Amino acid sequence: MSIRVVAVVAVVLLAACAAPESPVPAASTPSLPSAPPTTVSTRMSTTVSTTGPITGPIDEVRPAGFATITGTVTSAPGEEPCELCLWLADEPDLRRRGLMGVTALEPAVGMAFVHDEPRTTSFTMRNTLVPLSIAFYDAAGAYLDAFDMEPCVAEPCPSYPTPADFTVAVEVPQGRLTELGMVPGSRLDLTGPECDTPPSH
After folding, report:
1. Cβ density class 119-155: b for 16+ within 10 Å, e for less
2. Which residues constitute the domain of residue 138?
3. Chain segment 60-86, per-residue pLDDT in tens
4. For residue 77, how many C-alpha atoms fall within 13 Å in the half-sphere facing its CB?
5. Model-level pTM greater than 0.85?
6. Cβ(129)–Cβ(1) under 8 Å?
7. Cα Rg of the chain, angstroms
8. By the 8 A CB rule, do 158 and 148 touch?
9. Which of 12, 32, 52, 63 has its CA at a distance of 20 to 30 angstroms from the CA of residue 189?
10. 148-175 pLDDT, tens per residue?
11. Is the preceding peptide bond at 199 cis, omega within 30 degrees of 0?
């Protein structure tokens, strides 16, 4: 996916966690419990779902030229953290490319667009072939907002305004945010190293 006005970082998540039944209001500072993280592998569908002209099965195309990063998401205080392996888009060129043309995320489960400073901008799904969900977090790791985005293979492509002052945006296959624990009240920590042994499926 590409970013309109300001580049944004796309992270690919490698794990899934159950979210709490009732959302918990977001707090101002991140706090991760000490319980060991759980991991569940995820896959991106290789069938394009789009309002554009591309339909049916397509070849698997994975992100190229991106590093990965280990992270954790806690869906609420006291909940067990979800361990993630994400594709890392932390430079302007990587943020511009994002998930354009990508149809498979393995060995990660999503992509994180990371900024050094808070941003308020918009995203576009130009040349993005699969439907995505995107979640936004501030500099403290607190959840800000999330929404779904649809593929766009022909102009004009709609813009999706972001919440104010986000530093990380995480794109995953559409509908996976709740499973990954990326819900209101959740916290995201991307301080981990590059993924050592990502799952092969």
Report:
1. bebebbbbbbbbbbbbbbbbeebbbbebeebbbbbee
2. 2-20+32-189
3. 999 999 999 999 999 998 899 999 999
4. 8
5. no
6. no
7. 15
8. no
9. 63
10. 999 998 999 999 999 999 999 999 999 9
11. no
